[in-house]
Amino acid sequence: MTNQTLAADVVVVGGGAVGENLAGRTAAAGLKTILVEKDLVGGECSYWACMPSKALLRPGTALAAARRVDGARQAATGVLDREAVLARRTAFTSDWKDTSQVEWVRGAGIELLRGTARLAGRKQVEVATDEGAIAIEARHAVVLATGSAPSVPPVRGLDGVPFWGTREATAAREVPRSLLVLGGGVSGVELAQAFARLGSTVTLVARRGLLSAYPKPAQRLVEAGLRADGVDVRLHTATESVAREGDGVRAQFTAANDGGTGASAVSPVSAERLLVATGRRPSLAALGLEQVGLVPEELRTDATGLVAGCPGQWLYAVGDAAGKVLLTHQGKYEARAAGDAIAARATGSLAAGGEPEPWSKYTATADERAVPSVVFTDPEVAMVGLTLEKARERGLDASATELPIAVAGSALHADGYDGWAQLVVDEDRKVLLGATFAGPDVSELLHAATIAVVGEVPLERLWHAVPAYPTISEVWLRLLEEYGL
Ligand SMILES: Cc1cc2nc3c(=O)[nH]c(=O)nc-3n(C[C@H](O)[C@H](O)[C@H](O)COP(=O)(O)OP(=O)(O)OC[C@H]3O[C@@H](n4cnc5c(N)ncnc54)[C@H](O)[C@@H]3O)c2cc1C
Ligand SMILES: NC(=O)c1ccc[n+]([C@@H]2O[C@H](COP(=O)([O-])OP(=O)(O)OC[C@H]3O[C@@H](n4cnc5c(N)ncnc54)[C@H](O)[C@@H]3O)[C@@H](O)[C@H]2O)c1
C-alpha cells in the first residue's frame, strides 16, 4: 500500500461529462489538472442516462414517424426488433467500457486517477485507490463534479422489494413483460414510453401531473402520446405500499389529495419490474465538505461555480453536483465557465474578488433564464427560458401567445400532426423570455428559440427571421402574427 502525495494546479472530483469538460478547459489553459473518477469516465450521461435512454427511445420514434405518413405507413407494418434496439443501445454505451473516454482524457493532457476522492482540508484532496491512499495538494482549485444520486421515496415496503432505478432500466438486458413506473418526471415518461414501445405492459403512476415544470398543454400532449402507446397513466395517485409478488411486485395506491383520477386509478398493480424514477439530489455526502466548514445540503455556488462561504476562492461545484440545473448540456456550460474562471484567476487576469459581469465567458448566466431542455417522448417537448408562471413569479410583466402547430410544414411532416407552441414575451422590453414547442420532432426547433432568448432579440427584429417554407418552424411566423406583429 502506497501513501503518495501529488501536487496539481487543479483537482477535479468526478469524471462525468461535466468534470471531463472542466478538466479539458483547465488543462488546455496550461494548468496541471488531475481528474479523479471512482467509476466509469464519462459518468451517468454516457452509460446510464442520456445516451442509453435516447437510444432506447429513438427506434420507436422513427417507426411511429413512418406510421404517421400515408404511403410510408403501409410499409411500416412490423414491430420493433427488441434485440436490435437493445444492441444499438449497448453500442451507444460502448458496452459500459470507458476506453475511448479515457483516451480522450489522456489526449487532452489531463491526468486521470481512478479512486474515490474526499476533501481532507483547504485545497487538500485524499483519494482512496486500489493501491492505497493518495494525497493531492491543489495549488489553485478543487472542483466538485460528482453528479447526483436518485432519491428513493418513502413508500412502505420499498426497502423489501427489488426495484430498478434509471441505471438498471437504461442498462436492461431484457424487456420485462410488465413495468410499473413511479414518477411522472422526465425519466419516468421517457422510460415508460420506451418500454411500452418495446412491448412491456406499462403503468405510470404520478402523485401529481406529468412533467410539472412544463406548460399544461404540453403535458397533455405527452399524456395522450403515452396513452396511445397503451400506457396506463395514473395521475394524482399516491403509492401507498409495494410488496413482493412472485418474482415481481404488487403496489397499492390511494388518490392524492389534489384530486384522484377515479377508482381505476387506485386499483392495485402487479408488475414484473418496478422502476422508481422520482428525482435526483446532488451527490455531496461523504465528500468531506464538513472538513472545510461546509454543510452539504446547504452548498451554494455563484455564477462562476465558486462555492459560497469557503474563504480563499478555491472550491468550485458544477453540473448535477451544484444542483442548479440537472442537465448534461447545462452542466458542461457551467464547466466551461468555471474552467475558464479558474484559469483566469490562476494567472491574475480575472480579479480574485467579486463576480465577473453576467454573460461574460466566466459566468453561467444562462442558468438563470435561458436553460433549454427536451423531453424525448413522442410527441417531444422542447422548452427554453421562463414559463409564463415563472416569469410572473419573478415580477416580470409577461404575456403568453400560444397556438396549435398547424402550418404547411407540420401537415407535410405527419398526417394529423398534433402540436402546440407558446412564446412568452417580456412586455416591458418586447423580447422573448421563453418558448415551448410540443409535438413530433420539435426538438430541432429549440435552438432558434434559445438564440432569441439569449440574444434578447427585439420582437420587431425577430419578425425579419423568416421561416423557410414549408417547415414546422413556420409556427414562429404564426406566433408572431398572433402576438400582433
Ligand atoms: C434516465 C436519465 C436520462 C437523462 N437524459 C438526459 C438527456 O437526454 N439530456 C440531458 O441533458 N440530461 C439528461 N439527464 C441528466 C444527465 O444525465 C445529468 O445532468 C448529467 O449526467 C450530469 O453530469 P455530471 O458530470 O454532473 O454528473 P455524472 O455524470 O453523474 O458524473 C459524476 C461522476 O462523479 C463520479 N464521482 C462521484 N463521487 C466521486 C468521488 N467521491 N470520487 C471520485 N469520483 C466520484 C461518479 O462516479 C460519476 O462518474 C438524464 C438523467 C437521467 C437519470
Ligand atoms: N431528456 C432529458 O433531458 C432528461 C431525461 C431524464 C432525466 N433528466 C434530468 O434528470 C433529472 C432526474 O430526472 P427524474 O425524472 O428522476 O426527476 P424529476 O425531478 O424530473 O421528476 C421526478 C418526479 O417524481 C415525482 N416524485 C417525487 N417524489 C415522489 C414520490 N414520493 N412519489 C411519487 N412521485 C414522486 C416528482 O413529483 C416528479 O414528477 C431531472 O432533473 C431531469 O431534468 C433529463
Textual characterization of the structure:
This is Oxidoreductase. The protein is an alpha/beta fold and 485 residues long. It has helices at 17-28, 43-48, 50-67, 82-92, 99-107, 166-170, 186-197, 216-228, 328-347, 366-369, 388-393, 408-413, 446-454, 459-462, 474-483; strands spanning 2-13, 33-37, 111-114, 116-121, 124-129, 132-144, 148-150, 178-182, 201-205, 232-234, 237-245, 248-255, 269-271, 273-276, 280-282, 315-317, 372-375, 380-385, 398-404, 420-426, 431-439. The longest helix is centred in the C-terminal third of the chain and has 20 residues, at 328-347. The radius of gyration is 24 Å and the shape is globular. It starts with a strand and ends with a helix. Bound molecules: flavin-adenine dinucleotide and nicotinamide-adenine-dinucleotide. The site of nicotinamide-adenine-dinucleotide has 24 residues, from α7 and β17.
Task: Tally the structural domains.
Answer: 3
Helical residues, percent: 25-40%
Structural class: alpha/beta
Question: Which fold name corresponds to the CATH topology of the largest domain?
Answer: FAD/NAD(P)-binding domain
Report the portion of residues in β strands.
25-35%
What name goes with the CATH superfamily of the largest domain?
A: FAD/NAD(P)-binding domain
Unreliable runs:
none
Distinct small molecules bound, one entry per kind: flavin-adenine dinucleotide, nicotinamide-adenine-dinucleotide
**What separation lies between the terminal Cα atoms?**
72 Å
Shape: globular
Strand segment count:
21
Cofactor: FAD
Keywords: FAD, Flavoprotein, NAD
Domain FAD/NAD(P)-binding: 9-330
Family: Belongs to the class-I pyridine nucleotide-disulfide oxidoreductase family.
